[in-house]
Amino acid sequence: MIKVEKRLETPKYLLVLTPILSVLVAILFSSILLLVTGEDAIKALDTIFGGSLINWQEVLVNSITLVILSIGVAVAFKMVIWNIGAAGQMMIGMICAAGVALFVPIALKDSIFLIPLMALAAVIGGGLWALISGGAKAIWNVNEVITSLLLNYVALYLLQFLVFGPWKGVTTSGFPQSDPFPAAAKIATIFPTGRLHYGLFVAIAVVIIFYFLLNKSRWGYEIRVIGEGRNVARYGGMSLAKNIIVAMFVSGGLAGLAGAIHVSALEGRLSPHMNTDIGYTAIIVVWLSRLHPLVIGVVSVFMGALLFAETNLPAAGIPYEIAKLLQGSILFFVIAGDFFSRYKVKFVKE
Amino acid sequence: MSNAVVEMKGIRKVFPGDVVANDKVDLTIEPGEIHALLGENGAGKSTLMNILTGLYKQDGGELFVNGEKIEGKYGPKEAIEMGIGMVHQNFRLVKPFTVSENMALGTKGKFLYDSKDIEKKIEEISKKFQLQISPKAKIWQLSIGEQQRVEIIKMLYRGAEILIMDEPTAVLTPQEVKGLFDILRSMTKKGISIIFITHKMHEVLSYADRITVLRGGVALKTISAKDTNDRELADLMVGRQLDAKRMITDEVPLGDVVLRLDKVNARNDKGLLALDDVSFEIKGGEILGIAGVAGNGQKELSEVITGLRKVTKGNIFFKNEDITKECVQDIIDRNVAFIPEDRHGMGLANNLPATDNAILKSYRNKKFGSFLLQKKAINEATQKMVDDFDIKIPNIHCNVKLMSGGNLQKLILARETFENPELIIAVYPVRGLDVGAIDYVHQRLAEERKKGKAVLLISEDLEEIYKMTDRVAVLYEGKIMGIVNTDTTDINDLGLMMSGAKRSEA
How many Cα atoms are found within 13 Å in the side-chain-facing hemisphere of A67? Predict the structure, then answer.
């Protein structure tokens, strides 16, 4: 008979070992599926991981957006507020940043303050967007999962409305996208070749700042205690409503910042193409990292590689869904693996 | 074999950690009687009923239903088939559904939902037992009293002949209570037997035929309601052996009034009046006990003083300043210590280390850092608490959920007294602790009194009240029944006041 026992404390080595093992099992599982379906598993894995090494700049480009989004999600999750709307908040950030870039007064068009201004608008926009869910949660206890999730679609249609309608560029030959941003609105690349841009340093700064905020600061302490239980927090004199509102604003603000970096560095204009999956990928990253900011940094690079593989696989004649399959199985096995770090499984003879 | 509908003989139930919930309990239910199970919280009433309804399996003893010995598989499903139904304190109803839809849930019916058929059956039951209800009404539209009626009908619909009611009056207004017992009485005339769980003495005396008193998991006595009175019941329920010595024997000069409540009113979580014109004061160097059976407003009393619950009427003064409207943080800043009833859910964050828990009340204090927390200062403070209070913990970075109950309470006590508070609110501070830890907590509270601090000690245990308090106020249904000096009072008077008699009558 199999007996399952709750562990009192998870040993440190298991905390490290289970996610790594889970990822390996997921790779194995995906490879078997590939073999069964007749695909070349070795070639696929080589394209995913080997290709990522060669194209490390692209991998990091993906990671920049992902890491900022994930830190935002982690802020809310630490308080057990389930912000599922990172993608929507990011799109609002894109819209706000684009609005500044497109409609800024001539005097500022070439200013070095243009990018900071875009970022600021995006943070405020994303933050306020998240506050629709956060405020409803804090005041009326409305389920934030539903509101933040549905607002993703509102944001997507708002974005599409703008690029198909009022913000459609005059120089775009009828394509649904805005005019290109002025040159000063574009984040520069670090190297002469490749797309890796200075947003990388913003991402690194976000990781470090939020490591200190969440793990070392008084604010982080409040978030930790609230995440542990509403009653303990009330007993300690913490305001739940205030903290929910602040955390949601910060969470959405970071997503907005990711959006600003995305349009500024990569697109250079507002276009209707938006991969809403990135919000869910961020959730996967946060879960894999157990909400630890530094680990989020590392895992984002790993996930950035998988995201890159989605675009790289078709070039090698392999369906891009394989990268999706790998992503999905990794999440599945990590959550399953989590069970083993929480519980002990024993085989006992009856 | 008698014609008893239920017979429980020598029932024993032990929970993990060797907690004996029931031991050698005998209970006999006659057909058509209203039988009250009376006892304090934790006396083992619910455990006993959960055995009868098949939720738990007893570790010892025998169970007979309708003269038939229960053996082998016996779960909730079998219990219902035997005609045993339980109405829980928190109703098991689906609120957006109608009454008849709720009847259909969990019962074997036809494949298709036949509302006509169900409505007809509900009407039959309504008529037979005078339980007026509209089968088409949605549950959320009904009052609490009506919802309870639906629960009763649901049990009758499933064929219950033995109805167990768990604290049925806790959620009702006094008028509804009267109505409920009228209905229950008429049901017994139609052959239904009723067991109701309660800790309210006057209900037992007015409405029950026979009463079984439980204390500490043991059934003390079954008596007929006619042959007893509130004094005897109070004695049985509370226990009168008081061989305890008073711990606070030294004279402490009384200081100024630290806490004063003036006709304070408050509501409980269900919106019912929980505190009714509560007035008292505590001076420095004094321990005031609040005696009473749990659930009579104790929790609410501790919460209004600490700012966790709104005062609906009246005023609270701390050192002559009105703190009625202040929030939790303001009151923490006034240096009021609070040892809450719920150690795990409120007093401590289980999955956080001792260090995080040690600063729960003082993390806003500059000495622990203004923006980033000062790890060194926090570690030192925590280590000092651990050393001063002899808390057993591998190291201060361990999660507190690994600590034993006694050590958890020591940690709370250490934290709460760390800033040298003027007032300490202690709610059931020794509940569930071993003898050594109980003594330690009491010593510490006595020391605070000696230092000239004011202490409010809420307790159900008269022994603790006698041992630890200068004066004692008895709380019953949200009212203070009287305040007396502990060392000159008769313990029986306290017991009687706990059962709802005024000081003058006692």
Answer: 32
How many folded domains does chain A comprise? 2
| A235 vs B340, B359, B375: nearest CB | B340
CATH assignment at residue A109 = 1.10.3470
B223 - beta bridge partners? B211
Alpha-carbon Rg for chain A, nearest whole angstrom, is 22
The 3-state DSSP class for residue B468 equals: helix
Query: Do B212 and B27 form a contact (C-beta atoms < 8 A)?
Result: yes
CA angle B465, B309, A76 (to 5 degrees): 120
d(CA B144, CA B90): 10
Taking phi first (over 0 means left), then psi (-120 to 50 degrees means alpha), and beta for anything else, what does residue B71 get?
beta
Q: Is residue B44 part of a domain?
A: yes
What CATH number has the domain bearing residue B314?
A: 3.40.50.300
Q: Mark yes or no for CB contact B350/A221 under 8 Å.
A: no
User: B403: part of which helix (H) or strand (E)?
Assistant: none
Residues A28 and A86 in one domain: no
The answer to whether residue B414 is domain-embedded is yes
Number of domains in chain B: 3
Cα-based distances in Å from B137 to A86, B123, B143, B150, B158: 42, 13, 11, 10, 20
Confirm or reject contact between B369 and chain A (CB < 8 A).
yes
Phi, psi of B99 (to 5 degrees): -60, -45
- Report the C-alpha dihedral over residues B436, B439, B445, B448, rounded to 10 degrees: -90
Greatest CA span in chain A, whole angstroms? 82
Cβ–Cβ below 8 Å for A9 and B361 = no
Q: Please answer yes or no on whether A235 and B363 come within 8 Å at the CB atom.
A: no
Task: Indicate if A23 and A78 belong to the same structural domain.
Answer: no
Closest residue on chain A to B306 (Cα) = A235
Interface residue B360 vs chain A (CB under 8 A): yes
With CB atoms and an 8 Å threshold, state whether B329 touches A216.
no
Q: What is the pLDDT along chain B (506 residues), one digit of tens a residue?
A: 468 899 999 999 988 767 788 889 999 999 999 999 988 767 888 889 999 999 888 898 999 998 888 888 888 888 988 999 999 888 889 989 999 888 888 776 667 777 888 888 898 888 888 888 888 889 988 888 889 999 999 999 988 999 999 888 877 777 788 888 988 998 999 889 999 998 777 788 889 999 999 888 888 889 898 888 877 887 787 665 555 678 887 888 999 999 999 999 999 887 889 999 999 999 999 999 999 877 789 999 999 999 999 999 999 999 999 999 999 999 999 999 999 988 888 999 988 999 999 999 999 988 998 889 999 999 999 999 999 998 988 889 988 887 888 899 999 999 999 999 999 999 999 887 777 888 899 999 999 999 999 999 999 878 888 889 999 999 988 999 889 998 888 777 777 787 776 655 44
Same domain for B37 and B84 = yes
Contact A237 B361 (CB under 8 A): yes
What is the residue range of A14's domain? 1-39+320-350
- Return phi, psi of residue B265, to 5°: -120, 145
Token pair of B295 as six digits:
């659930």
Q: Does A217 touch chain B (CB under 8 A)?
A: yes
Q: How many CB atoms lie within 10 A of CB A319?
A: 13
Chain A interface disruption, residue of B303, B360, B376, most A CBs within 10 A = B360
Q: Smallest CA–CA separation between A87 and chain B, in Å? A: 31
Q: B330: distance to nearest CA of chain A, Å?
A: 8
Residue B82, both tokens: 């035997």
Residues B451 and B360 in one domain: no
ipTM (interface pTM): 0.84
Contact B346 A232 (CB under 8 A): yes
At residue A12, what is the residue type? K
Contact B328 A225 (CB under 8 A): no
Under a CB-based contact definition with an 8 Å cutoff, are residues A284 and A303 in contact?
yes
